[in-house]
Amino acid sequence: MSAHKSSTTFKLSTGASIPAVGLGTWQSSQSEVYDAVLAALKTGYRHIDTAYAYLNEEAVGKAIKDSGIPREEIFVTTKLASIQQLDPVSALNDSLKRLDLDYVDLYLIHWPVALNPNNKSHPLIPTLPNGDRDVLHDFDFIDSYKVLQELAQQGKTKAIGVSNFSIKNLTRLLEHPSTKIKPVVNQVELHPYLPQNELLEFTKKHDILLEAYSPLGSTNSPLLTDETIVKIAENHNVSPATILISWAVWRGTVVLPKSVTPSRIESNFLIVDLTSEEGKQLDNIHKEKGIKRLINPSWNNIDVFAED
Ligand code: A2P
Known about the structure:
The protein contains ten helices and twelve strands. By secondary structure, it is of the alpha/beta class. Helix 7 crosses helix 8 (240-250).
């Protein structure tokens, strides 16, 4: 079968369904994201991923409203920024106000690290005089997660999860006595240069979905010219991006390609059915090219991806 619009959905552990392909909006400015979300919804996307830290929630919400598509048909995710970790109640209320929504479908802890909200050197990423991020080393994301569970019970978010969590941090969260509601997803960087096979196996075992951010390899991606990917794309007569998105779905992960270009937003919603041979070729690229993590901010001596 040739390229077709994605209709795949996965089940969250809550029983809700989540469209496999969603629009990523990191690095999409307010002015760009409005048209991007409208273009995505017109194409058929029903899943939009944003975050407080992307500073574009207002425009995302306005586009959702202006699309005329009933709210319950769209899966909306936003995230608790590190600077908000001490007060998730206000953080989600503020996000809902900006989005002009009564609830989100998914609320994630964006990073397993809290930043000092009393340091006003920067609205999102405050730093110390030496330039390091002002990390609250004694604060535990377990305490934020406790509050997220309350927010889920109140219905302000239909489900809760995490992002940028390692196996070590996930294990601690799952084993903690205060964790009564399991995270439904872990959103992480995933692409053939960073397949995170152990994390994928671990999360599948625990009924947690992995969500792929930067699935195309982010800006100026070397993946789009990788010879294996280009060859498979030529075989299917589609773009390399379509192969990366199809591979993500093939291996059972949600995928969140970001674009503000309408033609790309449209083509990124196309999926091809990969043969198992092609899937394996894509699985094996990292063995030759090595592992490349593209997004790895410095958290003042905390290595959030330490053992992955
Ligand atoms: P733009 O937003 O200007 O269209 P990722 O999802 O891995 O973070 O990648 C996002 C980057 O890839 C952005 O620079 C985006 O550019 C670009 N991009 C998105 N879709 C495609 C595509 N189909 N082909 C080439 N580049 C793309």
